[in-house]
Design brief:
Layout: E1 5-9, E2 21-28, H1 33-39, E3 48-51, E4 57-58, E5 63-71, E6 76-81, E7 85-91, H2 96-105, H3 123-127, E8 130-131, E9 134-135, E10 140-147, E11 152-157, E12 178-188, H4 201-207, H5 215-229, E13 237-238, E14 247-249, H6 250-259, E15 266-267, E16 272-274, H7 277-283, E17 290-291, E18 294-296, E19 304-306, H8 312-330, E20 339-340
Parallel strand pairs: 2-5, 3-5, 4-20
Antiparallel strand pairs: 1-2, 6-7, 7-12, 8-9, 10-11, 10-12, 13-19, 14-16, 15-16, 17-18, 18-19
Helix pairs in contact: 4-5
C-alpha cells in the first residue's frame, strides 16, 4: 500500500534546514512498496528524488515539482559468518552513526573511523563516504537496489559500484534510477586493523590515556575530533563538507608551493597529490564570513552554514563564489560534494 501526500514541508528532512516543499511525498518502509509506487500513475508523470537522512542535499527552490521518496527501510541482519569475518545486511534507512555504534558495541571492525558522519546507510555507498583514512567502499560487499527502469530488484557487487573519491554509480549514471534498499558489509570479528595514522587520532588517543587500542577507543577519538571541528546540524544547519578535496598534478602543486610555502598536501600516487579544500578556501578569506543568515563556518572553511532562515539558492551562490575565488587564486577547480536540488 502506497500513500502519496501532497505539498509536504521538507525543512526538518534536510540538515541544512532549508525550507522547501515536495509536490508529492511518500515513505518507503518495505522494499515491496516500491513496485506499487512505480505502478502509481503520478509516479510515471513526475521526477523522483530519493531522500535518506537529508545530510547531503541543498534545496535551491521553494518547491520540488516531483515525488520525494523517503527511505525508511530498517533492520540489521547477520547473513554470513566465518571465524574472523561477519557479513551484515543493513536497511538503507538506518541512521549511519547508529549502525557504526552497533558495530562498535558488537566488536565488528571496519567502520569505526566513520563515526558521527550524518546521514543514512543508503547514502554511504552513494557518496562513498570517507574520513580519517577510511572509505566505506573498503567494507562494502554489495548493494541491493530496486531499478526503477526495469522494475526489478538487483544485487550490485562492489566492483560494479564504480566507487571513486566521493563517487559511485549511484551518484552518476544510476542517480534516481536505483533505489538502495540494503547494503551488505564485510567486517572483521577479530585481529582488527586499526587505522590511526590520519589526522589527529593519535594525539586524541594520547590525551585520552589509551594504551591499548580498541574499536571503541578509535571511534571515541574520531567523535571527539569531529565534534571539535564540525558544527552539529541540530544547532547550525549544514551538510558537512560542501566541497571535495581536489586532486591536482604534482608539478602544479610544486609550482604553487613556490608561492604558497605552507600549502599542505597528501600524496595520491607518483604524479598526483590531494590538497585540503578547507585550506584553499581559508586562504581566500572565506573562513568565518557571514552573509545575512548564511556563511562559511568559523572553525572549518569546508562547511557552509545556515544560521536560521537561510535561502538554499543563496547558499548555492555563496558556494559558486567560493569556487571562483579558489580558481582565480590557485588555478584549482573545486567540486561540490553536496547534491544540488
Amino acid at each position: 500500500m502506497i500513500t502519496l501526500q501532497e505539498n509536504v514541508d521538507l525543512t526538518s528532512l534536510n540538515t541544512f534546514g532549508i525550507q522547501s516543499t515536495a509536490r508529492y511525498f511518500t515513505i518507503i518502509q518495505n522494499p515491496n512498496q516500491l513496485k506499487a509506487l512505480l505502478e502509481h500513475k503520478i509516479t510515471r508523470s513526475y521526477p523522483k528524488l530519493v531522500l535518506g537522512g537529508g545530510s547531503n542535499v541543498l534545496f535551491t527552490k521553494n518547491i520540488f515539482e516531483g515525488i520525494v521518496i523517503k527511505n525508511e527501510i530498517k533492520g540489521i541482519e547477520k547473513v554470513r559468518e566465518e571465524e574472523g569475518r561477519v557479513w551484515l545486511k543493513v536497511g538503507a534507512g538506518e541512521a549511519w552513526h547508529d549502525f557504526v555504534m552497533y558495530c562498535v558495541q558488537h566488536d565488528f571492525g571496519g567502520v569505526e573511523n566513520l563515526s558521527l558522519i550524518p546521514g543514512s546507510v543508503g547514502a554511504a555507498p552513494m557518496q562513498n563516504i570517507g574520513a580519517y583514512g577510511v572509505e566505506v567502499k573498503d567494507v562494502i560487499e554489495s548493494v541491493s537496489v530496486f531499478d526503477f527502469t526495469s522494475a526489478t530488484f538487483l544485487e550490485i557487487k562492489k566492483d560494479d559500484c564504480h566507487f571513486g573519491y566521493r563517487e559511485s554509480i549511484f551518484k552518476q549514471e544510476g542517480r534516481n534510477r536505483y533505489f538502495i534498499t540494503h547494503v551488505t558489509f564485510k567486517l572483521s570479528k577479530k585481529n582488527h586493523v586499526y587505522n590511526t595514522e590520519y589526522g589527529a587520532i593519535k594525539d586524541i588517543l594520547t590525551k585520552m590515556n589509551i594504551s591499548e587500542l580498541s574499536l571503541k577507543a578509535v571511534s571515541d577519538a574520531v567523535i571527539a575530533i569531529r565534534k571539535s571541528k564540525l558544527p552539529d546540524p541540530v544547532q547550525i544547519g549544514n551538510a558537512g563538507s560542501f566541497f571535495k578535496n581536489p586532486t591536482i598534478p604534482l608539478h602544479l602543486y610544486q609550482k604553487l608551493k613556490e608561492v604558497h610555502a605552507a600549502m599542505p598536501m597528501y600524496p595520491v600516487d607518483n604524479t598526483h597529490v590531494k590538497v585540503p579544500a578547507g585550506w584553499l578556501i581559508e586562504q581566500c578569506g572565506w573562513k568565518g564570513k557571514t552573509i545575512g543568515n548564511i556563511g562559511v563556518h568559523a572553525h572549518q572553511a569546508l562547511v557552509l552554514v545556515n544560521y536560521g532562515g537561510g535561502d538554499g539558492q543563496k547558499i548555492f551562490e555563496l558556494a559558486t563564489a567560493v569556487q571562483q575565488s579558489v580558481q582565480e587564486k590557485f588555478g584549482i577547480a573545486l567540486q561540490m560534494e553536496v547534491n544540488i536540488i
